[in-house]
């Protein structure tokens, strides 16, 4: 046969098959993957419906407008939980509940920093989350300049006595955000390293990839063996400025005053709702995003987007006229930004039913499109993950690694405890432009990109919940 | 002749002519335009040299780094004048001088604003230049929303009693910045209009085209007949947020506290230096930029760029081995941002030699490339302006209007007093993204774009100073 003939034959076959409500082949696939009848067609329908427009943006708009910033453990985060319960109930979800837990609260206070010598000028900066305060009158000290964290680590003990350490290592953009771990160490651990050399405070170049006067906050931790010093991040343009002055051979003197407050034991919580499964309701497939945000912006890309995506996907399934065999659990995680505390609290509370946490994924990398699917599941379940990838390929998702554990930050405790995982990787090239800055606001989100995320979450949640395969 | 033959003949002629040090035609052009011998070739050389790299960026880097923000009338602006004198002398300019004058000083103070009802959250905003303070304890009031200034103007007298007026009109991008006049009226005059209706304060959407958490400051004026109320600008994302809440039908309540200080009579000044002309040294062709900046950024695009461009052009001429017939006067204008006060002071001081101010142009529209040449000169001088346009066409400048008065903000008083004018219009599509914000920093400047500006300024200054034609 020539090609034209083959083509015509296939076209005729396709036309014939598409005319049937359920093809023998599709049903065969459903059976093979231990899905209910028509399950794959249902997943496709969910995908296509989401792509035509989901309610994800509407949800982010509501959260960022009606709550705004919602730092973990604050009254604002409590308002976010109230918003969440009311929103989920208004969408028709039953059994919405809060699993409360407490954290050590921290809130930003007044903060000011200025270069006082050699070229007096204010600095655009912010206190890092968890930092101690300066004395009320602030700190005034010469600056010890370090290009990298490694340079700071190499400084001689005592060499920073009475000085403010400044580390200027610049983060570069990556699609998968993979350099955040490396660069983020400066933010997380820099203070104690500087303190161990005698520094009285540390300033870092923001862990961020923009060039705006926007400092990036984020959490830091102290080594319990070392005295605590205040820690703050300069915006990238301000770090550039200090680099230029340093390059002139000048000694810089900075005045720093930060007055964060430790607010003691503070209430937070995870907001949870299930779409109850028909056959194994106690087995749950988890999707979600985190409800808390940093205090500087309104938490649109971090992580209003995740809340919107996961909720819109769940709502699509809720309204789809079918229920999966297992339950789909939608979780709005609390207190993520201050150490994945919602994830740890959930693990603690659900230790006894760990084997019922079948698989999960979280959306917490902004509002960009998904470009890759990574996973780590049993050999038995791999064909189902392959089927998910096949269904997502038309909307721009390529299969990635099938041996990559990780399902998003808040699921890390569960994954470490053995839960199988799947991650729908978003394009994060611009994520660290906005991450943890005042600029994380709704205007940065493209609604159509959210819809593509919703499509992928709906396909994952539906198929993972509707199969009888074991992921473990 | 066919085209190939024409082409070959022309090519041969070009080759022949280019081999001559000075073509009879060029010399004829020089004579016709009352230029010294070889003047046009010299202008081309200046242009080509600038395009290969000028020192403009180096100058902006020095000013923004070593001085930083330099608000009119402050110690920082005085440091900028010291920097200017030292920089110009180090570049080999003779006779650098400051023409001092005084202004009524104003400085930004502590400022905070928050939405307290219905959705409590802090607002990103800044006080407008010239605004009065709130009471120490701030103002707390309901918000009256207006989509446009026209809507505010249409409000009934007394209808804003006890309220904070918020006007949300959004500026759009234009290449020539022409909508700044229309939209800027809200900033300049909004406070007195709102006060006339009983408002206790006014918030405006920033006069700016970005979508970052960056408020745009800028000067405002009170109608002396109307009581003064505090005036401040929200960033665009914050204005969006209030619009969304207003659209929900909610009454918004805002707490505003701004504590600017009127610092009384304050010293400022214009920094001036001449490249002395050989035949008519008392006749001056003016180029320059303004030395002061707003306090929030480091004044890189507004107007470090103008300082760098004009200085680099003057330096190129200074080092070119030739002097023009008239003097070229380089002016770093003081106190531009607070009402073109340097321009008015210069006019006042130079009233007696107004006829010696031959023509001028200022660079004060950012760091983008020049795309258009506008002018208004005598019929006698028009051929010279046409020649300038011809020389600038290869570097992307198109002739614009020959009946468009205007030479840049600080020259407005002189132009109104009758001085001929020429303007090298920069592409300003992105100018109002950064204008008057904390984000106006060096990283936003492309050095190569500055070089193109330098080329145009050098061609203009050289030819206008070297001709014997009258522009008037």
From TrEMBL, chains A, B:
Residues 1-28 form the signal peptide. SUPFAM superfamilies: Zn-dependent exopeptidases (SSF53187). It comes from the Bacteria. Coiled coil: none annotated. One of its GO terms (cellular component) is lysosome. Keywords: Aminopeptidase, Carboxypeptidase, Endoplasmic reticulum, Glycoprotein, Golgi apparatus, Hydrolase, Lysosome, Metal-binding, Metalloprotease, Protease, Secreted, Signal, Zinc, Zymogen. Residues 270-458 form the Peptidase M28 domain. One of its GO terms (molecular function) is metallodipeptidase activity. Homodimer. The monomeric form is inactive while the homodimer is active. This is Carboxypeptidase Q. It comes from Congregibacter litoralis KT71.
